[in-house]
Amino acid sequence: MGARSVIDFEPSDEQQLIVETLHQFAAREIRPRARACDESGALPHDVLHAAQALGLVTNALDAAAGGDGDGRAVTAALIAEELAWGDLAIGCAILSPQLLALPIADHGSQAQQARWLPAFQGERFVPGALAVLEPGFGADVFAPATRAQRDGEAWLLDGDKCLVPWIEGGEHVLVTASSEAGARGFVVARDAPGLSATPERNLGLAGLPTVALSLQRVRVPEADALACDDGRSVRRVLTRARVGLAAAAVGVARAAYEIARDYAKERHAFGAPIATKQAIAFRLADMAIEIDAARLLTWEAAWRLDQGDDAEREAALAQQQTRRVALEVADGAVQVLGGYGYIRDQLPEMQLRNARGFACFEGLALV
Amino acid sequence: MPICFELTRNTQLARDHFREIARTRMRPLARKYDDLEHALPTEWVSYAWENRGRAAQGTDLSAPADGFVQVCIQAEELCWGDAGLYLRTPTPGLGGSAVAAAGTEEQKRRFLTAFHGDGPPVWGAMAITEPGAGSDSAAIQTTASPDGDAYVLNGTKVFCTGGEGASQHAGGFVVVWATLDRAAGRAGIKAFVVPAGTPGMQLVGLENKLGIRASDTATLVFENCRVPRENLLGSAEVKPTGKRAAGDPGFKGALATFDASRPIVAAMAVGVGRAALECLMQELAAHGIAPRYTAPRAALSAIERDVMEMEAELQAARLLTWRAAAMMNRGRPNNLEASMAKAKAGRAVTRITQKAVELLGPAGYSKKLLVEKWMRDAKINDIFEGTQQINQLIVARRILDYSSAMLR
């Protein structure tokens, strides 16, 4: 950074404006649809299209990639927190175009950028997808078991992926696979021969359609492979994904905490709001402290990415803390609401199911 | 000013400067003065006194500064060296903060000049806690009675950090909290500057403690101890909160000094925690163990997980601390954030140091290393300048928008 910067933890005025805009969108458009989306397993597509008008992809890309945003991971983390605060499933859906757009902008050739990026910046919402998680126990996203083998001027992909967001209307999915030169990203058409998608049912994130992908000799032209750079490109994508999910986890935690806090001030027991009891008040205080701490770790990882650092350590620590905090806070919210926290009229039970997912989510949001 | 996690060049220079002092001047004395408990650490005191105010080489005074964050970094570095010695450093201490915050220009001159002079080392201290009143500082029993041109103090103060230095070495002073009118509750509580050697102020003992043994934790008895009226900080008027004249800090003002001191205590905690974590990681590295940050969770050993958790907790505490300090740079109220930092740091570092002893096994438990000492030193940070529970209470009141009457 420039010599004039001093250490500081407040978003710029411009970032603050973005946060406020997205917060209003999340409160008005996303939150009221969260429960129905989770129950029905169907995304509110009108909300996704309304979100497209916010120009998130264009704002996420800098001028070099045809956007008009600052291209900063810190800004993206602020956005992801607000959207996930509204609802994790709908928020991830709204952010899904970036799953393709950001890696293409970072690691795609000019021709690839010109070919794929405009679709995400039009009036129509075009979802993206990233396939990094694999189903085996102890699978390592940094060293995918999915293989990419040379076949003349093309590649053949073989392997299995899971928890891949699969929203109606998408045309491509970015698949990571190991080649001889290291892990690499491939842009694969959803209808490519050899690619089959099986819908999943999971503990949470029910509103976001996800699939298990099976790839059997899926042929991908060289022109559709992103830069390999000895595997560094995929490492970068995965690190940005960890920070993106960390920000989303902070958003889920904050949403659950606020519901618990407001409930505790309303709900009376023994003649007073339960928030006036230290057992409740201290638990809420701990939630607030942990959420702020987790957010600062997330911002630090994002800021390091923006400096061009690999930020792998910071991203890992942020991921580890945010997934713990999201779970503890969501669980605490269910507890504060008691029986009301357990029933599906209220959001905390869903937030608890969603929060547990951060233990395994990878590649559902990028900064 | 955008979000920025990088220290200015000046702060980096200061950090390196204090890190070197901690490494060469404090660490070699750490075990000695832990063993000697109450002895004056003369090597450290003379070095610190002779070099007070010396800035790091290359500091550019015209460059932008990290301000209060730099103060926290100094505390972290020196407590990485030794927390007990840090607390024994000849400075105006918390008493000085009270004089600086609530004193008149004349009072600042009178009480703080000795700290900039050529004389022998001097100390300042703050005496609030009493045998029957700790966190509940409004319940203090020490009285101050007007008598002619003086106030007469009577009562007992305990757990006074730096109390020996401040009460026994000419030029120093103790800021004593006492009530002018018990019936008025907290509105009656005022702060009085009692210079070292004032008749009636008696050092009756030093505590034997779990840790920070180099720090003099004093019991002071005040028996008809007369101080001039000009030694009262703030106004003598006893008025309920809210009806006080502008500029009179009163009880709330005295509490506000905690908003400045709590981030420093949090930073101290981070310094001790970092010492233990670094030592642990060096020992592990010697055995070929280093955390693999990008490995799948299932592939990590329990030790790797523990270490990563400790690293994250330490950095989380540090960032909350720096945020509370950066807010002071901006002139923002930071009562909530200061307590968040203090609560998190006290808790995190207690856990980190205890875990370090555990993971190192007999080596961690042995006095051959300093890790067992850091575990003992760390714990005080979860107690003094507001216990974990008091800080939770403050955070809870803030986030719930409850008064102290609504959340007791």
Write a structural description.
The complex is a heterodimer of chains A (367) and B (408). Chain A is α+β, with helices and mostly antiparallel strands and 367 residues long. Chain A folds into three domains: 13-120, Acyl-CoA dehydrogenase/oxidase, N-terminal domain (Butyryl-Coa Dehydrogenase, subunit A, domain 1, Orthogonal Bundle), CATH 1.10.540; 130-230, Beta Barrel (Butyryl-CoA Dehydrogenase, subunit A, domain 2), CATH 2.40.110.10; 231-359, Butyryl-CoA Dehydrogenase, subunit A, domain 3. Chain A contains eleven helices and nine strands. In chain A, the strands form three sheets. In chain A, strands 2-3-7-6 form a four-stranded antiparallel beta sheet, with no helix packed on it. In chain A, strands 1-4-5 form a three-stranded mixed beta sheet. In chain A, helix 4 packs across helix 7 (232-266) and helix 5 packs antiparallel against helix 6. The longest helix of chain A has 35 residues, at 232-266. Chain A is globular and about 75 Å long. The two termini of chain A are 19 Å apart. The relative contact order of chain A is 0.13. The mean pLDDT of chain A is 95. Chain B has 408 residues and is of the alpha+beta class. Chain B folds into three domains: 9-91, no CATH class; 94-249, Butyryl-CoA Dehydrogenase, subunit A, domain 2 (Beta Barrel); 251-400, Butyryl-CoA Dehydrogenase, subunit A, domain 3, CATH 1.20.140.10. A four-stranded mixed beta sheet of chain B has the order 1-4-5-8. In chain B, strands 2-3-7-6 form a four-stranded antiparallel beta sheet. In chain B, strand 2 and strand 3 form a beta hairpin. In chain B, helix 4 (93-102) runs antiparallel to helix 7, helix 9 (335-360) packs antiparallel against helix 11 (371-379) and helix 9 packs antiparallel against helix 12 (388-400). Chain B is globular and about 75 Å long. The model of chain B has no long low-confidence stretch (mean pLDDT 93).
